Amino acid sequence: MVTQLTPKASLYLPRLAELTRVEPLAQKEKVFEFRLSDGKELGHKPGQFVEISLFGIGEAPISISSSPTKKGSFELAIRATGNVTNALHKLDKGATVGIRGPFGNGFPIDKFKNKDVLIVAGGIGLFPLRSLINYIRDNRADFGNLTVLFGCRAPVERLFCNELCTWGEYTDMEFLETVDTCDESWTGNVGVITTLFPKITFDPSNTYAVVVGPPIMYRFVIAECVKKGIPEDQIILSLERRMKCGVGKCGHCQINNVYVCQEGPVFTYAELKKLKEAV
Amino acid sequence: MQNKIISKQDLVSFVNNLIKEKAAEEIVGVKASDGKYAFGELANASELCLDYDVTLLPPKKYFLPQKETVLKFKLGAKPSVEPVADAKSIIIIGVHPYDIKAIELCDAVYTSTNPDPNYLLKRNKATIIGVDCLNPNPKAFCPSLGTAIVESGFDLMLTDIGDSYVVAVGTGNGDKLLNKYAKTKAATDSELAQRDNQRRQALGKYKVSLNMPSSEVPGLLEASWDSPVFKEKSETCLSCGSCVMVCPTCVCFDVQDDIALTLDKGERYRQWDACMLVDFAKVATGENFRDDKEKRFRHRMYRKGMYLITRYEKPGCVGCGRCALACLAQIASPAETFNLLKEAS
Ligand SMILES: Cc1cc2nc3c(=O)[nH]c(=O)nc-3n(C[C@H](O)[C@H](O)[C@H](O)COP(=O)(O)OP(=O)(O)OC[C@H]3O[C@@H](n4cnc5c(N)ncnc54)[C@H](O)[C@@H]3O)c2cc1C
Ligand code: SF4
Ligand code: SF4
Ligand code: FES
């Protein structure tokens, strides 16, 4: 006979949540604010994700984009790419969705305390990192220098533009951004995200680099971080894998012997180096 | 462990009693049809076949059905959702030792962390009556993995010794069933010696074996990531997923939603999925993390020979040979690949 555990009936049961606000971010991206119908807080850490359900369509793993310091509701920023995400984009305020989670390990924020944090966001990699940036800003005294680098393909693909502007204005953080290509109307940096590295200075031994972006970006940014002398266990990445269950059962998120939904999605480069097929 | 003797005739009565008296909501066992064997519901003990080589699908299907509803929901302005997890009490008759080992692995996967309500509910209502495999199929290699004979994981375990069976009593539940529904007597030493002899003879009938102790397989794989064996072996793979679908230690699934024709309600179900299928690891950006058959083939071999063992401390392959029997390309047996890697090492 199996262990007489009483399983939670709720393992696959989403909680209901109401869509309280929706705003476009870019051509295929919108930010959605939700409130759990049971009145509870989501209770997440930056870097964790939820499984969002549209009943009759399906479920998708989405990072939580708001900081846990924001109370009463949480935000998901979503790019329309397939069944669930396109259907989400058609929702209006007041709609009901299902939420499971939060899942995953999240960023190791306790380790960041009193350290300098260098955040490198490529495209929609900004979505989970925004949670971390806002968390650090809301607990500013706990952390050392904060530097944020953001890169996207073209100016029209910039995300959370108002927030980017304010980040650039704050004096207690440094914010730099770049686009791969543009026309004359863009007066900022042009070039891939690694072209921003020569423009910043940091003490590598006291710095945690947190990098989220498309797989191709990882290769170049990791190399840059290593070259600058950041120890491999202080380079933090978040991985995207196909996920169906979020609870370590369905097998879709497996890299070698690691379940990304359980042991990840956040890993140190020192951990990932040991895995094959990871980056 | 207590050992009893039940005559073949009394075993027929035992099974018929279980059926007639509804000892469980479902009584299932191994049935033969067209020279193949499959677990199915028993209407009468005469349908039960205890001398078989291997069933098409493993008994895993009773705990992790091919397709299973996990949620029901109502749509509309105020949607609602409820979990679905139901289970009937079930007695499964004729489970081979390797399948018992495989169920122990499934138990570890589905109960060690985040216990799975749907799996556990079914599993906890199941009684397992095993039977020793005395005539293994030509692709099986259980002795190499230590899965040919089991001492636990069953309620009752039968071994054919001619006119009767030795019955090992594994649990109090098994004992109760025997007391209530069967006529047995205590086993003598000579009957137990006969059983051991039967088992020993069966071990000699396996045609496939590993060319190394199974404890060496994880280390061998660890050192073989870049081996050309995976590419050579997988060249003819059809990516059909059959090897996974028949495997008793494959536990992965896909999740989908269905809406009723009335459009006002629906359900979410899970169904078996296979890492040998092309899209298994594909994400929405189009990136596919195991985009060719060599990578998928290697992933399956590592799961069977290394990942599951290191994660759950249980064999990830029990050597039943089902994958090798199902594979049209004749490449799926982990034993073959492990042996080739060993030769090349
Ligand atoms: C931890 C984590 C965090 C994430 N965070 C975010 C986030 O914050 N914001 C965000 O926008 N996204 C995020 N994602 C990505 C997001 O999960 C996917 O975009 C989403 O699952 C797509 O779901 P969908 O139902 O819309 O697409 P699907 O309909 O499942 O598929 C989208 C595309 O995938 C391909 N595809 C899928 N299945 C098949 C198939 N069977 N055969 C062929 N092709 C197929 C197709 O190209 C299809 O167009 C995250 C992913 C992970 C793992
Ligand atoms: S991998 Fe093949 S031999 Fe091993 S348990 Fe699965 S089906 Fe049986
Ligand atoms: S190994 Fe054989 S059974 Fe498995 S996917 Fe390839 S062809 Fe199909
Ligand atoms: S998403 Fe199912 S195991 Fe990780």
In the residues of chain A, how many domains can be counted? Answer: 2
**Arithmetic mean of pLDDT of chain B:** 92
What's the name of the CATH homologous superfamily of the largest domain in chain A?
Answer: Nucleotide-binding domain of ferredoxin-NADP reductase (FNR) module
* Low-confidence spans of chain A: 1-5
Strand composition percent of chain A? 25-35%
H and E string of chain B: EHEEEEEHHEHEEHEHHHHEEHHH
Structural domain count of chain B: 2
Q: Strand order of the main beta sheet of chain A, please?
A: 10-9-8-7-11-12-15
Q: What kind of sheet is the major sheet of chain A?
A: 7 strands, mixed
Biggest chain-to-chain interface with counts: A-B, 46 and 58 residues
Q: Which class do the helix and strand fractions of chain B yield?
A: alpha+beta
Helix-strand sequence of chain A: EEEEEHEHEHEHEEEHEEEHEH
Which of globular, elongated, flat, extended, rod-shaped describes the shape of chain B? globular
Q: What CATH architecture of the largest domain in chain A do you see?
A: 3-Layer(aba) Sandwich
Tell me the distance between the termini of chain B: 43 Å
CA radius of gyration of chain B is 22 Å
The CATH class of the largest domain in chain A, by name, is Alpha Beta
Which range does the strand content of chain B fall in?
15-25%
Helix content of chain B: 25-40%
